[in-house]
Inverse folding.
């Protein structure tokens, strides 16, 4: 199907091509784009052609080996058109026509899918802006025809794609494929990710999405692609308003943005917030050698823009380090005395071709990457400066990003830079921002190749978003019985313990005498809590007594808790030893409508509540990833021993998070669970309290861990080791 | 002097005008810019003219009423040239020539100043890129000649100005004045701020600075200008690397960026981080009516870009609220059924002139501002859509920002929008970001007009960066004696109390018996602390004992503190009542090299140390501004009573901050002071500890509160009520 779609022998445009019609514009794009007119055909009832392309009343009559149909007929006719195409041997269709699920016409879209299932024809769209394969002169799209290159763009929004392609043309970014897949009735982002992962003409993948279906299948496809090449992603709908807008025009079910964010990072994709940033990263990835390291040097011919770039560089995590004394000496040997030899290196407006060439060549021996700024006044010929930059970059082999501006003045120099493979960014700030993300990417990729052990803080690029694999030790820990029926604290604590989760020693008591015996057995001081299925928030009811020191206090405490539970179903008390000298954190689980089980780590107290200092991952996670979660919270420093606190046992904490992350796969009945607090001790961790909410209408253990995957052959709880490390 | 500079009768270019020389380029700019050649003259030893402009060996011989000289002669000749100009009646000069203080030639720059002082000629530069007055066809600059308009730009970096002017030309932003003042040997940002504040042709001021001298004088000029018109500021050197770069090429003394940030906001300036943002705000301010309110509606013809704009809108603090049912009903009466009626309102690619016109007209009755997005495919004629937008905006009178893109496709429509006064932004995201800042600005301006009481959270636009005014009650509280000599805690506490700062009751004791008597007098439980000039960090030495409950504990405590101080100069103990149920914050003072005394508020503990949750203001501040400081910290919620804490007395806290902020003016000997902790109680506040560092080499009370102001007639400690509310 892929050759039919992207390298068809012949293409039929199906629909009216009267002047001003969509079909006319599409045909013109294809003809102007250079697809041989003899291999194009128009099909409509009148057999009317246009623009030198012959028209026929049916596909069969074209006499061409039509692999691809481009459909612009009215929505009601599309299923029949596809049927006819399939009969005529057409293997793929791009349906531009709108008016399907996006306006509530679900039946029409289902009818398309029915034809796909029955005939095997594959469909892009409907309600899409078409596709592009620059390397096959194939432009059945309404958007700008971009120059050929190695960036492939998939966009759920045709207009977003259109803007990107227009910029690509304006600024000379080469495109391999463009795919606007609209409603994705048949082929969707997963299919294209799989294709582009293998496509030798695609070096970088750019993806604009608003919502995905089957979150875990999407993650598999994305991770597989991101292992092969950089994938830059805009996920729109970051805010409530954005999400609402997304819903209103896609009608799909929204996952939480924070979960998307976690999922994208777990897959090794680079999430960006804006089209500009996406554009800059694509430019950097295609035009620059790998950025290895964060020491960047800025060579400029004017101070102010150099400072702005230096500011931004530091803000995005690059190091604008000063040149070594030896390098300074080398530079001072050939640069005029009025040049600034600190970083940014200011050649001043007198900067010459030779100045850029020799300076860049010298500094690139010491730095990991360079930005060459040229802020040109109108009288300056910037082409020689560009030559200097190009020569030095070629000689050093290291990444050199240019920022020659302003546009109208440096146009010719920018054309030269581009032709010589040096990317030019809109400003120095944008150049350093792109370099920083590239450095992140290559650092993570290298860590993956070298092995994840070396870089604990880096989220592993290979996601373990599958259920536990058979060979995984944790999977051996199997489900131990079922969830307790009562979901009372002592029952849940016992269940956690059976599942290998560290809980404190505890005893229950139904009378004051039993409570005294229990407290003595545990050893004073103890904590006593009320047990009742009707009291969920024990603290708020006064149902938690801390630091009980002797038998008398136990008796008094029992009476008090019994009074707290007066009138509700009082099941006695649970008694724990008082945990002292611990820091409190929380570990939680919940289900996202798109991605299923998600594990959360929060550093507790004000951090979680006021600062929203919570790390999320699509579950399950391994120990290294759990450690990454802890490290990404602001409260990590406290856990690690800041402010004179004893450092907590971060190893045990990471183990706990990983263990908890597997529970929803062993117990699909779990909808939500909070372990709060979890006590982090200098040695070990202990769960201080647990709250669990089971799924409503949970039927089987096999179908519910991901609501949308029950009809998928690769359901996330079925082991699948093929795309893991 | 201003008419001579900006509306000269005749201009002399002094220097060589051989082809390729700077003088030649400058002359060409002036001629091409439309300044009458008959009112131009070239002056150089050979009397050589160019480009139709006559040359003379001296200014006197030109026979023209030369008000302005543009100087490009070698650095060494500049003072003599200025001298000659002054003799010939020239009243202002723009010195383009470089090679002065920026390369260490301080004497040369001083020689220029000497001519200025002696002759009264006023100088822009040296080392500058020239000036522009579009309304006088005056273009003695090397940068792009922009279209005429009402934005005036001052830039410490000529290149930054050049980029801005090139964009202004490319995107049709009208400029009134451009001033590149280079080293600012004579006229500097303060002078130009004063001029532009009054200039009727200037509606918006844009300012790029790296460093200022005389921070408080700068604040006065900036605040005075910002009261008249919007001032958009880039202060470069936000990071260490940026600051270092700034230093290396300006040689001036750096103030801390956080203090600059506070100072700019106190003056009512709008600080931005990038040139793009500066450009967008200037565009918005000049082209849009006041943005009053944050409810924004997005009208689009494509979903994806609408979602991206909605996301950004919410992120920058706008409200993308849904239309009311009544409005929906109105819209559904004329919009096709496939249009999305939630916000963003999606007219789809079928959106028409009439669709934009009627939709915008209807929604603008309900919303405060609108963004009109048009993402045009190549076949779409966008001019009719632009007409719809223009008509609706005119009818409603409310702010409508357009984002028509991509550029090459919508060029004609954008020209139409621009001509009709509708600003077009590069993307919808940039449009909403600008609207949000404009809404901030007008909200603050309105609050100022209505009175600051109404909007406690809004930092007052009128800065009280003067010392206390005579009529101010606090100023009456006068200096009470001098700083205690010892700077020991009890002495400082007594001094604070004398100055009206609330401190707890306390007593000192030199023996265990005295301590017991003191503790009894105060009432148990008490706190005891060691007193010794050699123990600064009492807690770390074990010199603070909390919660001492009885006479025995006092005796034991005294012995223990005596042991702590064994071997150092032990001066006894100080005893306080134990303060309970308080939240702890810190209030501090320090001196910034540019801005002098700065007051700091931090919410204490981990907030300050790990989260850097500190609010700064250039001192002194009034109560309302002190309240704003508290509110801008993240821990404000806790102080206000979050998480079940009793709310603290925020009024008393604001009073304390304001009182403290006046101390460095009453006691210029103070270099630094920390009140840490300050106990915030449900009723009142109390200082828990104090540390004070006096200024080294402090001589008089009048010259040291601002290190750079001693030679200024309007030194900050001299009352000046002229520019206060």
């Amino acid at each position: 199907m892929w050759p039919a779609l992207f390298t068809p022998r012949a293409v039929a445009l199906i629909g009216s091509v009267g002047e001003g019609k969509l079909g006319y514009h599409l045909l013109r794009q294809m003809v102007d784009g250079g697809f041989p007119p003899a291999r194009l055909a128009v099909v409509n009832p009148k057999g009317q052609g246009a623009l030198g392309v012959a028209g026929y009343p049916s596909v069969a009559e074209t006499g061409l080996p039509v692999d691809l149909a481009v459909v612009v007929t009215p929505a009601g006719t599309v299923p029949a058109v596809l049927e006819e195409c399939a009969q005529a041997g057409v293997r793929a269709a791009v349906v531009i026509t709108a008016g399907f699920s996006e306006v509530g016409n679900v039946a029409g879209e289902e009818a398309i899918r029915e034809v796909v299932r029955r005939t095997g024809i594959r469909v892009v769209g409907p309600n899409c802006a078409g596709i592009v394969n620059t390397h096959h002169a194939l432009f059945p799209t309404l958007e700008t025809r971009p120059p050929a290159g190695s960036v492939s763009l998939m966009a759920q929004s045709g207009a977003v794609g259109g803007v990107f392609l227009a910029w690509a043309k304006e600024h000379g970014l080469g495109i391999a494929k463009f795919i606007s897949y609209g409603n994705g009735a048949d082929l969707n982002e997963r299919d294209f990710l799989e294709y582009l992962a293998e496509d030798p003409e695609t070096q970088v993948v750019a993806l604009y999405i608003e919502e995905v279906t089957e979150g875990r299948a999407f993650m598999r496809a994305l991770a597989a692609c991101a292992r092969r090449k950089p994938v830059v992603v805009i996920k729109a709908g970051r805010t409530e308003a954005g999400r609402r807008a997304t819903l209103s025009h896609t009608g799909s079910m929204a996952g939480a943005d924070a979960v998307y964010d976690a999922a994208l990072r777990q897959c090794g994709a680079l999430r960006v917030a804006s089209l500009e940033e996406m554009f800059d990263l694509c430019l950097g990835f295609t035009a620059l050698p790998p950025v290895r390291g964060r020491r960047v040097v800025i060579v400029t011919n004017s101070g102010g823009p150099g400072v702005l770039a230096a500011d931004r560089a530091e803000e995005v995590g690059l190091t604008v380090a000063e040149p070594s004394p030896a390098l300074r000496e080398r530079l001072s040997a050939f640069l005029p005395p009025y040049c600034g030899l600190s970083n940014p290196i200011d050649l001043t407006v007198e900067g010459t071709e030779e100045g850029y060439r020799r300076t860049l060549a010298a500094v690139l021996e010491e730095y990991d990457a360079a930005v060459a700024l040229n802020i040109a006044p109108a009288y300056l010929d910037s082409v020689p400066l560009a030559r200097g930059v190009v020569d030095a970059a070629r000689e050093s082999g290291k990444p050199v990003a240019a920022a020659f501006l302003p546009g109208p003045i440096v146009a010719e120099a920018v054309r030269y830079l581009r032709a010589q493979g040096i990317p030019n960014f809109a400003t120095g700030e944008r150049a350093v921002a792109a370099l920083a993300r590239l450095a992140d990417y290559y650092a993570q990729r290298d860590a993956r190749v070298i092995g994840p052990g070396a870089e604990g803080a880096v989220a592993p690029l290979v996601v373990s978003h599958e259920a536990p694999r058979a060979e995984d030790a944790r999977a051996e820990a199997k489900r131990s019985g079922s969830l307790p029926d009562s979901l009372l604290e002592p029952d849940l604590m016992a269940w956690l313990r059976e599942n290998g989760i560290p809980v404190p020693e505890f005893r229950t008591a139904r009378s004051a005498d039993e409570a005294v015996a229990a407290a003595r057995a545990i050893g004073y001081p103890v904590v006593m809590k009320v047990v009742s299925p009707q009291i969920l928030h024990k603290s708020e009811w006064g149902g938690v007594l801390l630091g009980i020191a002797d038998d008398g206090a136990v008796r008094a405490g029992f009476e008090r808790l019994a009074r707290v539970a007066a009138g509700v179903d009082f099941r006695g008390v649970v008694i724990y030893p008082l945990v002292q000298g611990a820091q409190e954190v929380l570990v939680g689980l919940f289900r996202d409508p798109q991605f299923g089980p998600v594990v959360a780590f929060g550093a507790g107290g004000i951090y979680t509540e006021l600062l929203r200092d919570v790390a999320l991952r699509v579950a399950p996670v391994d120990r290294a990833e759990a450690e990454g979660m802890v490290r990404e919270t602001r409260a990590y420093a406290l856990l690690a021993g800041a402010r004179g606190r004893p450092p907590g046992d971060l190893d045990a904490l990471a183990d706990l998070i990983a263990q908890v992350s597997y529970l929803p796969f062993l117990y699909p009945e779990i909808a939500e669970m909070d372990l709060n607090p979890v006590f982090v001790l200098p040695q070990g961790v202990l769960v201080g309290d647990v709250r669990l909410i089971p799924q409503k209408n949970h039927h089987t253990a096999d179908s519910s861990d991901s609501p949308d995957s029950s009809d998928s052959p690769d359901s996330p709880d079925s082991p699948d080791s093929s795309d893991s490390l």
